[in-house]
Amino acid sequence: MSGRVMSCCVVLFLALTSVSAAHKKLNSITDLKKINFVQSVPKHSLVLLHWFANEVNIDNNNVIWLTFDPNNGDYGSHHYGNFEGLLDPLPRGNIRYQYYTVGNLYQDVSVRLPSYVINPRREYVGGNRDRIIIRVQEQNTGQAALRRIDQVYITQHYDTSEDLGTRYDPDHTYQITMNLLRQIREFSLRDNQMPLLYLRNRFQSQADDASIRNTWGNLACLGLFLFIVIEEKYSSTQRNSRPVNNRPVNNRPVNNRPGNIRPGNNRPVNNRPVNNRPGNNRPVNNRPANSNNRQEITYRPENNSRSENRRRCCWCALAISCFFVFLILTIVLYVYFTKG
Fold first, then answer.
1. Alpha-carbon separation of residue 153 from 14, 27, 178 (angstroms)
2. Looking at residue 5, what is its pLDDT?
């Protein structure tokens, strides 16, 4: 009886774990633009993701192959146990799976991240909070071990001000798809890099490629990638927040040409109060025609905070509901087997 109850508890626990491990997938650079990299997520995670996408190998069959050994700590990597249930449980079978994190800037290793990742421009410093998590398939073939990546995530440690230790933040953990990795690889820093003008037009950007080239030098493709994902979104928001077409239109007097000026006919048209009875003395039709002086709705950072709070509330409600379902089923099973 106790064995059956324990089995049911294990099944329910795995079900709850699979629910908690669901994360939003980022399938394109357009999806990256929806993340709040100013307040909620370090900008440095984009620098780290750009490096990773261009470091691994992707073959014609859309298979990602490791180019370094995470067991040796290369590029600030180490084994990740997933003890808090952040990600899906590892599959069981003949193929061995492991989770690894990559991107610890301060880990003392022989193979270090490039200098532009360790010491980025001041506005892209992330405090060593951001990480990449990969799920690796390890399959022995003779004397060599083929390491194939089948899942990629970007995540971050909680901020020290949140007093939650060194755990990863599930609300800001995102799965990176193959399509997004391929798009980022187009911004390569190697000898075969694409022209900035081509990349700007391909991703429908308004970036000044000459200014980015002068500012970033050899890292111009990285600078353009960061501008498209972060800076362009907020600069376009600021442009849209300015009043549009705020000049009065058709504000000249009518019939004021020589030869057509008669006494009593030189006053502006449609500028007198209409229906001027007591209690109804508001001027009517006294505003310039076609005035477009309303401001467009602008992006407000607090909107993302509200949506994140709502998402957290949804997850909390889901977790509480699952807990009560688990509790009720446990009680029912206990009563059933006890009476039996």
1. 21, 12, 11
2. 44
